[in-house]
Amino acid sequence: MFVAHCPGQVTRPIVTDADATGVAWLDLLDPTPDEQALAARITGQRIPTRADLEEIESSSRLFMEDDAVYLSTPLVRRIQDDFFVSPVGFVLMRDRLLTIRFTEFSSFDLIAKQITASKETYSGDEVSVLLLEAVVDRMADILEHLGQSLDTLSRDVFQADQPRQAGRADQMLRSLLRRVGRSGDLASSVRDSLLGMERIAIFVSENKKHDLSEKLRDRMSTVARDIVSLNDFVSQISNKVQFLLDATLGFISIEQNNGMKILTVVSFIGVAPTLVAGIYGMNFHDIPELNWKYGYWYSLALMAATIIIPLLWFWQRGWLARGR
């Protein structure tokens, strides 16, 4: 989809060159080859492909061609409890901005609504700064939600007052481990997005061939400071994720040790009765208890005692009780 966002007008599709006249923000959303060709003809610039936008080296993400500034970064899109990462590209020209994306982002939709509802005139530089501010705000919202989720996860991991039942402990620990893993993946993806945004802010602010106005440069500096603070928060989140991961793995080890205790008890109590049965099952003629009237019951009682006494001993030491 190839659309134009204009002040005081409804977002309209671009079909011909005339539809883009005087438009400061051209937006390519999951474009077709024909739409990419139309955008290239209108702007006179090369339109990067998805493969171009997914390059990881800085020289491929931040560069200039002629008078146009090419910028790209991965962005996190969060939908309820799920998320994914998709690349976003910016082609900043003297008189307009072209964005290339392959999925919808709430920050882009927010700025599009703000521009179409306004009667003020926006330049391409102003639109780019607005988008960067909105994206950083969205990253902050995601991190705030992630922090709250980790607080809930921490309470679930360390709920010492709730007994871990034998049938549910494994399922609960698996669920906790998956939640910790997803939180770590989200924190890592947000860090990548913030790193890309920080590089864009620095590159645009220090680019002498495409000078921003003093007001926009100040706003871009504010964006850069916000990104630094969010990076510090991501580091804190990452440390907490690692802590919860270690704690969850520790509880899993405890559950495994409990299982090994049960196996040890079963193995131990099986040895003594087997020994008694082996002794009185030997085929020797001179066995004192062989002709004893109560020898059979004596051997059964002895085997029962060798089972009960170790069980009582293990029970007193808590080996037969499931931990909390």
Automatic annotation (TrEMBL):
Coarse class of the protein's main subcellular location: membrane
Keyword tRNA-binding set for record: no
Protein name: Magnesium transport protein CorA
Name of the encoding gene: corA
Reaction catalyzed: Mg(2+)(in) = Mg(2+)(out)
Transmembrane regions listed in the UniProt entry: 262-282, 294-315
Described function: Mediates influx of magnesium ions. Alternates between open and closed states. Activated by low cytoplasmic Mg(2+) levels. Inactive when cytoplasmic Mg(2+) levels are high.
Pfam families: CorA
Cell membrane is among the record's keywords: yes
